[in-house]
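User: My instructor asked us to take a sequence, write out its structure as tokens, and then describe one feature of it. I'm not sure where to start. Here is the sequence I was given:
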Amino acid sequence: MTPVLEAADLGKQFRRRWALRDCHLAVPSGRVVGLVGPNGAGKSTLLSIAAGHVRPTAGRIQVLGAEPAAGRQRVGYVAQDAPVYPGLTVAEHLGLGRRLNRQWDAGRARSRLDTLGIDPRQRAGQLSGGQRAQLALTLAVSKGPELLLLDEPVASLDPLARREFLTALTGADADTVVLSSHVVADLAAVCDYLIVLSAARVVAAGPIGDLLSTHRADDLESLVLALIAAGREGLAGRENPVGRENPAGREGPVGREGPVGREDSVGRDELEAAE
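Assistant: Let's start with the prediction itself. The structure tokens for your sequence are:
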């Protein structure tokens, strides 16, 4: 079976700094994938490349068996901070989604908003943070994606709104979901596959149960923290051999996405110890 997301030697450099480097992945379909790592580890960069918003500097990536830009109609993407257009009403967002996406499911969009109690007449700028996140998710799932990419969509939400958003993922109907988060408890609640990034590199990827067993970890948080620490130690060994100065800046800046593109949808265990 062809992986839903496959990368080899993938890297992205911003000026002199690498935001993502030597990335190797083969993510199977039918999974809810947790993407975790500290700030600057490369999570947003990886998702932006997979969504076709950013071109890699090195290596290659295929999404649903094709170049990312070729599969945008089959991918739903919610960028960091769930960007929407503040001046447009909810109904206008749905109309935009209908015009830009060939397989738009208007019934699904209306049903989700009715269930969430979001008034289509309201402007997006008047919605709460949780409602804006739900609007962005509605736009992403109503295009009928095979792959749903979510870049820390619950980072700014309160615990109740975060739980409601994650619960809604169970009805997303995408074949595969990739969700990035700093909060390990969020990932443990909904994910069955894990990708750990540290210092701009993938340090582990696989089914959560297999990773826990292989690394003899008692729980997901201890597993993630140990893998991040090991990744940083490995980077120090690569970049600081005896007699060589440490290059400036190990971790590159992470790109920030705006609202919906031409074909895209609008697009507590914090890891403070790993920051």
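For the description part of your assignment, you could build on this observation: The helical segments are 43-50, 90-100, 106-116, 129-141, 159-168, 184-190, 208-214, 220-239. Try explaining in your own words what that tells you about the chain.
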